Amino acid sequence: MEAILDQLLNIGELLLQNGAEISRVEETVSRMGLAYGASEMHVFVITYSIVVTMRLADGTCLTQTRRIGHPAGTDYFRLEACNALSRRCSRAPLPLEELQSEVERIREQPRSRLRIYGGSMLAVGSFTLFFGGGPADMLVSMVFAAVTCLLQEYLMPVCMNRVIFNLICALLIGLGTCGCVLLWPALQLDKIMIGYIMLLIPGLAITNSIRDILVGNTISGALLLTESLLWAGALASGFMLAIWITGV
Amino acid sequence: MGNTGIQLLTALTGSLGFALVFRLRARLLPWAALGGCLCWGSYLLLSSLAGGSFFPCLLASAAAELYAEILARLLRAPSTLFYIPAVIPLVPGGTLFHAMSAVVRNDWAAASAYGTATGIAALAIAMGMSLIWALVFMLREVSRRMAARKNGR
């Protein structure tokens, strides 16, 4: 049973790190525990930790906690796979080895680089046009969207945290964009920058955090809100610094 | 009119881009993109009818969530998959940028006006979404209780 609980925590961790709401994680872990024969499940999830106590049919209790590291980013493939796995287990619990290998399989699925780069460039280019930019603005913003992806891939792992990363990343691409505008004054700085902001801004994190608070997960919501305001502040400072240095 | 067309089209491709980054299954991608277009379309329609930005934003977010809940039932996938890409065009990136650039220019009146607008938009998006979420939860509970009562007798 210990080993099964461990796998349940693995699934909870996968969900939480890949962009699931708190209530979804709690619900999924509870449902799977009950399917595996627990008579009661007590699951408490906050942004950084999962605590599960499982009361078995013979009255003994099992408790495990898991510290959750930094979020890996939103990944709907993993969310859907975990969701499908939990539904399958609620109908007919899988044997431990099979559950283990399924969890492993979901975790190991590689993300395609082409989709991340292509998707980011498409999103940033679209929003530059959306906010009123022209075709030239769109091209510049798409180039820097690819640079942002490169930074996310190589700079993020050596940064202390998201705040520092956002600051450096915003400063670098801000300087690059201001440089382009100085060389070619017909470009509209604001439209280009709004394009990246849509990609980098933790707007969704802020929205999610307010939703968490409104549905009653106040601690997690407040944590996420504080974090995302810090991220947004770092982002803004980076861009501001770039504008101030170049004087555009 | 041409402007509206460009906005709707880029809302579509922008949502598609985000869905790609979030690794949505290929079969669901068109639905996510359509959601962005519908969400922005309903915002434009509501703001031209009612004016202001708080209620149009709230109702457009509610519309996106409703769309996501319906698709989730039809396509058997979690509703978040459709809601998040759909609501992206509402995210207040523009006002945040203007607030920032006002700070650089030392224009505090503009900075606080744009900053407030950013906060209000975030609040409106979350409230619109929660409204539909609460309704769906209520309907599900009611139907579950009615089914339980029927089975009990």
List its traits:
heterodimer; A: 248 residues; mainly alpha; three-stranded antiparallel β-sheet; 10 helices; 10% strand; B: 153 residues; 6 helices; globular
Describe it for me?
The complex is a heterodimer of chains A (248) and B (153). By secondary structure, chain A is mainly alpha-helical. Chain A has 2 domains: 107 residues, no CATH class; 134 residues, no CATH class. Chain A is built from 10 helices and 3 strands, in the order H-H-E-E-E-H-H-H-H-H-H-H-H. In chain A, strands 1-2-3 form a 3-stranded antiparallel β-sheet, covered by helices on one side. Chain A starts with a helix and ends with a helix. Chain B is mainly alpha-helical and 153 residues long. Chain B has 6 helices and no strands. In chain B, helix 1 packs antiparallel against helix 2, helix 3 runs parallel beside helix 6 and helix 5 runs antiparallel to helix 6. The relative contact order of chain B is 0.12. The mean pLDDT of chain B is 89. At the A-B interface, helix 3, helix 5, helix 8, helix 9 and helix 10 of A face helix 1, helix 4, helix 5 and helix 6 of B.
Task: Provide the gyration radius of chain A in Å.
Answer: 22 Å
Provide the residue-averaged pLDDT of chain A. 88
Residue stretches of chain A low in confidence (pLDDT < 50, at least 5 long) are none
The portion of residues assigned to helices of chain A is 55-70%
- Biggest sheet overview of chain B: none
State the domain count of chain A: 2
What amount of the residues of chain A lies in strands? 5-15%
How would you sum up the global shape of chain A? elongated
Spans of chain B with pLDDT under 50 lasting ≥5 residues? none
Helices and strands of chain B, in order, run as HHHHHH
Largest sheet of chain A: 3 strands, antiparallel
Through-space gap between termini of chain A: 63 Å
Instruction: State the largest interface.
Output: A-B, 50 and 45 residues
- Note the gap between the termini of chain B: 60 Å
Kindly name the structural category of chain B. mainly alpha
Oligomer category: heterodimer
Q: Fraction of residues of chain B in helices?
A: over 70%
Quickly count the helices of chain B: 6
Question: How many domains is the backbone of chain B divided into?
Answer: 1
